[in-house]
Amino acid sequence: MDVDTSPSSPSSVDASRYDLKRTSSTVMKGETDMLDRAGAVERLEDIDLDGVDKKHLEKVVWRKLDMLLLPMATMFFFLSFLDRGNIANAKVAGMQTSLNMSNYDYSIALTVTYIPYILTEIPSNLILRYVGPHLMLPGMVAIWGIIATLQGTVTSYGGLLACRFFLGLVEGGLPPGLTIYLATFYPREKLQLRIATYFAASSLSGAFTGLLAAAITNMDGVGNKPGWAWIFILEGLFSSAFGFLCFFILPKSPETTSILSPTERAYVVYRLKQAGSASSDENEDNFSWREVRIALKSPQVIFGTLMSVLMGITLYGLAYFEPIIVQGLGYAGNRAQLMSAPPFAVAFVLSLASAFAADRFGRRGAVAIFFACWSIVGYSIYLDETNSKHAQYGALFLAVPGTYAAAPAVMTWMANNSAPHTRRATSIALGFVASNSGGIIATWLFGTLSPAPNYTAATIVCLSSSAGVLVLAAANWVYLAKQNLDKAARREEMVTTGGSEAKGMGDKSAFFVYNL
């Protein structure tokens, strides 16, 4: 079986330099029932793969796993964004008036979701080790679905705040948990497109939430409940039902999933081992505060974290306020709900297309830079009040896709350029915390700090954030390119002198090529 030679894979430099000792439990080292899983791995390793057609297995295995895992992972992320973001549609449908809320109150309702959301991301991952992602992930979906449903029963602002707090408390662990879960099934060079696929669900939810809200608000008065309440109730009930269903479908691990034959499971174990790390450190998979500190001080992680904050401002600003922005352009009622959908639909398509291109050519930074420019143009058009309302609406087709296509590129860029596992896990978690911190800022931009209908100050902030992403992405690209040149020189020197490097270098190793 040929080893992948894409720029994101360290094997493109010198596969023989790497200690391929990682097992398929690399990321989920603390997964529940580890003894059973270790036994399964040992039994699968006894299966002889020398006489099988590995090229055929390469196609069949990942197709089977994609068909099983990606629909559920995508739906989980879709429902997460849907149940957090549908409050914007409820606001358009009259929730703010019914609960006697000001714009300030609305921003508070959004903020109380993010505080527990951020605080629970890392602790949730620790619990994930003991409960198991195949149980905890669908459990979170089922529970937050119930909480989302309860939002439709509240009759006071205080009740809404309580629901929003617990919604964030339960949802917080999903993004990092989902990323870690998929990393136990896919080798590193195949993981990025899968992450981008489920992340694209965030833009898909922006499109569907407007369409669903337009239909659901026609139930206004049914059961003596307003239309906005039915948005929460019906969408929350669906989330709960889907979460309960996935309890019986989501596999525990690649070694035990019934969708694969024993030979196919053995091949997954083989490929996960083959996609080892750039480090020869035997203890690279053990948690260490030293590795955490190295990650926190790594320039590429710092650049990625800063980009994540800025993208969180624009991404969540659009997620929570795009329907309200559309309403400010002169569209009312169901018309506003429907007109909010197309920009997100375009964002969904471009997110997948750009992810495929980034995987194909191994150029995350180029994608981030390109779509940051796209967003800048969109916000600039919207900011020009001399433009017609139609032109300003058209600007959303640049601002929304630009933001939603750049975000997964930056997220996977951080994951690509951190190793071993502890550094990578730290960078992933830090990226999510940073983006959600940007989300807190976003909750105050539109309406509270920047009045309707033009939202001038908020648009300037989003424009500046996109420009910041552009500058940081370019700076990160220059830094990584220089590091790759330095590493090439170090490799040449070691070849000439016959020298070697210390264990535990991880992404600092001369044989780890940074993804540009």
Query: How would you describe the oligomerization state of the chains in this entry?
Result: single chain
Task: Tell me what the CATH architecture of the largest domain is.
Answer: Up-down Bundle
- Structural class call reads mainly alpha
Roughly what percent helix?
A: over 70%
Q: Distance between the terminal alpha carbons, to the nearest Å?
A: 26 Å
- CA radius of gyration: 23 Å
| Count, helices | 21
| N-to-C series of helices and strands | HHHHHHHHHHHHHHHHHHHHH
CATH superfamily of the largest domain: MFS general substrate transporter like domains
Report the sheet-strand fraction. Answer: under 5%
What is the CATH topology assignment of the largest domain? Answer: Growth Hormone, Chain: A
**Shape label:** globular
* Largest sheet descriptor: none
Task: Count the domains.
Answer: 2
Low-confidence stretches: 1-35, 38-42, 276-284
**CATH class term of the largest domain:** Mainly Alpha
Keywords: Membrane, Transmembrane, Transmembrane helix, Transport
Organism: Coniophora puteana (strain RWD-64-598)
InterPro entries: MFS, MFS_dom, MFS_trans_sf
GO molecular function, one term: transmembrane transporter activity
